[in-house]
Amino acid sequence: MPQTAVVIGATGLTGSHLVNLLLHNPAFDRVRVLLRRPSLKQRPGLESIIVDFEDEASLASALQGDVLFCCIGTTRRKAGSQEQFRQVDFNIPVRCATMARRQGFRQFLLMSSVGANVHSRFFYLRTKGETEQAVTRLGFSSLHIFRPSALLGKRQERRPGALVGQWLVQVFYFLLQGRWKKYRGIKAHTVAKAMIAAAAKGERGAHIYESDAIKEMAGEPL
Prior knowledge:
It is built from 8 helices and 9 strands. It is of the alpha/beta class. It has one domain: NAD(P)-binding Rossmann-like Domain (Rossmann fold, 3-Layer(aba) Sandwich). The strands form 2 sheets. The chain has a 7-stranded parallel β-sheet, sandwiched between helices. A two-stranded parallel sheet has the order 7-8. Helix 1 packs across helix 7 (188-201), helix 4 (82-103) packs parallel to helix 5 (123-136) and helix 7 packs across helix 8. The longest helix has 22 residues, at 82-103. The radius of gyration is 17 Å and the shape is globular. The relative contact order is 0.14.
């Protein structure tokens, strides 16, 4: 039976790929995206909902579906402060996951980051680790956490720093071997494919995917 996919972070690099793939996947007959402001063109099967992520009633009304995908994220520079960064990368995913669990969602798929660790001395990675820890404690029947390295792909917004970073990642791609292999850049499209494949399998329990596991789940060569 076709399901309803709910997507948070649909306008980002990975999220936009995810929405496009979901709309062409027969396993899902509706794709519901939660947005803070109008930003997506209407397409068949796509339902855009403007939501106040800090308002419980607004979230409860919007979070209606079967599978919740979370690709939301920002950068410290774009957010403007650590507090604002944490609001986007911790508060919103955890608040949405908590509500989704309460609403009866059985599957939650989260895009995190390579190196995520609650004990990291780096604020970014520590926050990602804390987000992973918080959603794991919610007890979803099926939880899938993806830890990609630098995401490759064409972004809608111009970010010179990101372009330089992508160039460097590709230059040093084959130099990253052994335990460093997981730091190789990965296409955002590949991450999106892996997330949908994991949702389709629906394996019970908590699962974490890093570079090779993401590519394998997406059906791409390692």
